[in-house]
Amino acid sequence: MRARTVVVGGVAGAALLAGGHLAPVMAAAGDPQGRVAASSPSTAVGLGMREWSITAYRAKVKAGTVRFLVTNRGEDAHNLRVRGPNGYRSRISDDAASGGGHAALTTRLKRPGRYVLVCVKPGHERLGMRATIRVVKP
């Protein structure tokens, strides 16, 4: 079999490369806080963070398991929480270290609607570190 070189850019690409082959990011239904375990396919959403903004590389996703892949381009550490309809709150991601650090948050977004992505470091959301995505029916 002939080897192929695949170049995939961005944080989503980093999550998709596995053993030289493209592999789906896997996750499954989890607890009320949105934590999930491996078993069903998820949708990857790349996020760029810097002072004082979050850029989501997808405007909408289908309801289900979503894996947010954070790259921090700023000078401060940042993290991620997802808030949604009916008071939904995800767990908080690990910190993405400054200057190119990465973090991931996998959560289950069950209800269609508007979800807000925020950095919950003290004062960061107030300074503008939020973005929105729309979840649509599968």
Question: Which characteristics define this entry?
Answer:
138 residues, mainly beta, Immunoglobulin-like, four-stranded mixed beta sheet, 12 strands, 5% helix, disordered N terminus
The CATH architecture: Sandwich
Number of strands: 12
CATH homologous superfamily placement: Cupredoxins -  blue copper proteins
Instruction: Give the count of structural domains.
Output: 1
Could you outline the blueprint of secondary structure elements for this entry?
Elements (H helix, E strand, L loop, with lengths): L9 H7 E2 L2 E2 L3 E2 L12 E2 L1 E8 L2 E4 L3 E3 L1 E9 L8 E3 L18 E8 L3 E6 L11 E7 L2
Parallel strand pairs: 5-8, 7-12
Antiparallel strand pairs: 1-2, 3-4, 5-6, 8-10, 9-11, 11-12
Outline of the structure:
The protein is mainly β.
